[in-house]
Amino acid sequence: MATVTIIGAGMMGSAMAYPARENGHTVRLVGTHLDREIIDTAAKTGRHIKFDRDFPEGISYHQIEDADELIKDSDVIVCGVSSFGVDWFLERIIPLIPEDVPVLSITKGLINDRGRLITYPDYWLEKSGRDLSLNAVGGPCISFDLVAHDQTSVTFCGKNIRTLEKLRDYFRTDYYHISVSEDVTGTETAVALKNGYALGIALTVGLNQKRLGIDSKLRYNSQAAIFGQSLKEMSKLLDYMGALNLESQAVGAGDLYVTVYGGRTRQIGILLGRGLNIDEAKEELKGQTLESLVIIERLADAVITNSARGILKREDFPLLMHINDILKNKAEVNIPWEKFTY
Amino acid sequence: MATVTIIGAGMMGSAMAYPARENGHTVRLVGTHLDREIIDTAAKTGRHIKFDRDFPEGISYHQIEDADELIKDSDVIVCGVSSFGVDWFLERIIPLIPEDVPVLSITKGLINDRGRLITYPDYWLEKSGRDLSLNAVGGPCISFDLVAHDQTSVTFCGKNIRTLEKLRDYFRTDYYHISVSEDVTGTETAVALKNGYALGIALTVGLNQKRLGIDSKLRYNSQAAIFGQSLKEMSKLLDYMGALNLESQAVGAGDLYVTVYGGRTRQIGILLGRGLNIDEAKEELKGQTLESLVIIERLADAVITNSARGILKREDFPLLMHINDILKNKAEVNIPWEKFTY
User: Which chain B residues touch A147 with a CB distance below 8 Å?
Assistant: First the structure.
């Protein structure tokens, strides 16, 4: 049996405790400085404050001060922070990890370094200068559904297949199915992209609410039209990033499908579609972190920068450009449908 | 202004009357022998019995006996029959069409001729021996949403771009956006495939209803996992069929997205997932035509035939094979999740 240390007790990090513990491994859930209440509550009640189901028996719960000791004595570190915690993880946790202990990250996003988009594993490697095994999880997975033991199919990506297979053995259950892929860039890019494009689909829901009434039934033609356009733009970005295989495209499509129905990105897209500007929409959702807004800004900046350099064509990304315009310049939602035709 | 004659007054055929008439064209809606009540009602009330919105003013409604006369004097014939009407259209309508009048077909499906899959336009050309311009509509479009003027984005495919552009001019509105593509095989295959695979996604909904209760909330991880697997299998079938471009893949993905939420295919998938066998599930939906079941059988037969010939590998289609097994051999639903991993 292995020892699994999860750093970050947000929903996705915490959900990873279920398959690991159900497989009989030693599991420690370590909160960041932002997770103190989650950890206190879990220690008392055996349940995450956001979940409607208890953790499996036998998990230990820790505040961040225990991290140094626990990390030393682990077979795998799960990075469970959001994209806002990437630098915190780099500075506070990466230095503690022994080189023979692999990391499995659930953090989704990309860094934009003056037009160059970088996955988080690559960013951590570059910045830390360390030779760690940094692996990541892609593919469609909502934490609530994983906790409910809904059948879930994800991809673990990393540079070494043997390590990935070992990680797969730790986490694989009869409801958590894991593919392994050496296409880190493709998988991680696909996963980051869908976070931005899901907002585009939600815009159509809000637009119809404005036009047909807030309680009107959901319409799917417009959602599907944006879905198709999103896949086309994602495909171009995946090519640009050097995605190695078509599996990554399917990862992105599945992930987009699931994100359309997932909480905050959908909510803000609907609010924007209804006619609120970005400040008003953020105000409605106050206190919520919105990774999708950050990734859209980074993607759009990278497209614009690389378009100026002649590497990409911004005309190939009419949906992304419009979403960026809504977020950055408070442009009115006015989806450029005819630009999507060919 | 043009004269548009729609043959078949099912929902999708009838929905095409909206953009055409709103553009000011002369539109005649001609029912088949199965549509007598629809035509009688529309002539009296100005509304299709299945729609919640009136037809635009000025459409004329006709029983099939008028077809001969109307077809002669048309600029375009819209084929609005379901896949069950393909041979009827071949025998009754195709011989009446002048060679300079293009056809635009909304019929979705493929014929399986001893392992060779054929699109309907090709089937009509082969069987009739006539030199007609047979074009078709692909892409995500539910008739209800089109009638509600939801933003809709489709692809008209055919062998001649000029003809397609003319057809686009007839139908394009500020809510009905049309791409044109010479990839008839790719577009029509994508559109047919999604009809089968949508059933697979619905299976997971039924399985969760069985496991978690019939009123339990929708889970998306499992739907998204099947969505991703469907795209992979569809991509292999599109390659086999000789689809010309990646646009067709996006057409299929968008179309799959919309079909998951569309009526009958979803219903039968859910019933099967809940544990009914195919006969029991059909009994529940009696009187409903189920094109998706036919296309699954044809696809699966073609895969099995071509696998025996060494042209395809049936192991590449674990989802399709399982769905076929459920339909053909009354196999219990037991999705082979681990076969989807790589």
Answer: none
Judging contacts by C-beta atoms under 8 Å, the chain A residues touching residue B178 are: 341
Q: Across the interface, do B249 and A231 touch by the CB < 8 Å criterion? A: yes
Which of A152, A221, A251 comes nearest B142 by C-beta?
A221
Q: Which residues of A touch B150 (CB under 8 A)?
A: 208, 219-222
Place of tokens 């219903």: B267
ipTM given for this complex: 0.93
Tokens of A150: 């809904």
For every one of its 342 residues, what pLDDT tens digit does chain A have, with 9 covering 90 and above?
A: 999 999 999 999 999 999 999 999 999 999 999 999 999 999 999 999 999 999 999 999 999 999 999 999 999 999 999 999 999 999 999 999 999 999 999 999 999 999 899 999 999 999 999 999 999 999 999 999 999 999 999 999 999 999 999 999 999 999 999 999 999 999 999 989 988 899 999 999 999 999 999 999 999 999 999 999 999 999 999 999 888 777 788 888 888 998 888 778 899 999 999 999 999 999 998 867 788 899 999 999 999 999 999 999 999 999 999 999 999 999 999 999 999 999
**Half-sphere exposure for A227 (CA within 13 Å, toward CB):** 33
Cα dihedral A59, A60, A63, A69 in deg (nearest 10):
-120
Asked if B257 and A223 come within 8 Å (Cβ–Cβ), the reply is: yes
Give dist(CA B112, CA B120) in Å, integer: 11
Distances (CA, A) of B161 to A53, A340, A342, B108, B275: 57, 18, 11, 21, 48
What six digits make up the tokens of B214?
């019939």
- Judge whether A89 and A103 are in contact, CB under 8 Å: no
Compute the distance between CA of residue B116 and CA of residue B103 in angstroms, rounded to an integer: 24
